[in-house]
Amino acid sequence: MANKNNRCICTNLRRSSGAVIEYYDRWFSELGLTSAQYHLLLVLSQWGTINATDWAKCVGLERSTVVRNIQGLSRRGWIEEGGAGRGKQYRLSEAGNEILQKARKRWESAQDGMRDLLGDEDTDTLLRIADKLQAWKLTGDSLILEKKQEN
Predict the structure, then answer these.
(1) How much is the pTM?
(2) For a surface tag, which of 33, 44, 77, 91 has the fewest beta carbons within 10 Å of its beta carbon?
């Protein structure tokens, strides 16, 4: 149950994020896929081939997190090694392309459902705020340091 007196941005974003992830994961569950894995496969499909370091930068995760995910995606047969470039390169396998096509339809349905829940105006506001927070993540350390020095 939501606490209407909780004005903590961090707590509310974490709870909301968990609810949204759970919602999307339910859409992907019959495919044996999570929303996080879907995003990784989608980014890989856009790049063609990529190494773990660059892949991590593209998705905003630590390299070690991407490496752990690579192991699982490889075990499922959804990605494979291959391609030229620095470091070990990864690409979608045929099975990865197939699962991504199936998952894309489910993602579209999940998106429609979320937009129905929130409404167009709140969806657009949420996406605008998310863009702002994600851009801030890249440069936000100075803000944290400035606030610490004020106190």
Answers:
(1) 0.83
(2) 77
What stretch of H or E contains 90? strand 89-92
Kindly give the confidence (pLDDT) of every residue in the chain, 151 residues in length, as a single tens digit, with 9 standing for 90 and above: 556 668 899 999 999 999 999 999 999 999 999 999 999 999 999 999 999 999 998 888 899 999 999 999 999 999 999 866 677 899 999 999 999 999 999 999 999 999 999 999 999 999 999 988 888 776 655 555 454 555 5
Q: Indicate the DSSP class of residue 92.
A: E
Write the CATH number of the domain with boundaries 16-118: 1.10.10.10
The residue behind tokens 């350390």 is 141
Number of C-beta neighbours around residue 44 at 10 A: 23
One-letter amino acid identity for 82? G
Q: What is the DSSP letter of 87?
A: S
Q: How far apart are CA 43 and CA 68, in angstroms?
A: 16
- CA distances to 58, 122, 137 from 61, rounded to whole Å, are 8, 27, 12
In 3-state terms the chain splits into helix, strand, coil percentages (rounded to 5) of: 75, 5, 20
The domain spans of the chain are 16-118, 119-151
**Which residue's structure tokens are 């999940």?**
110
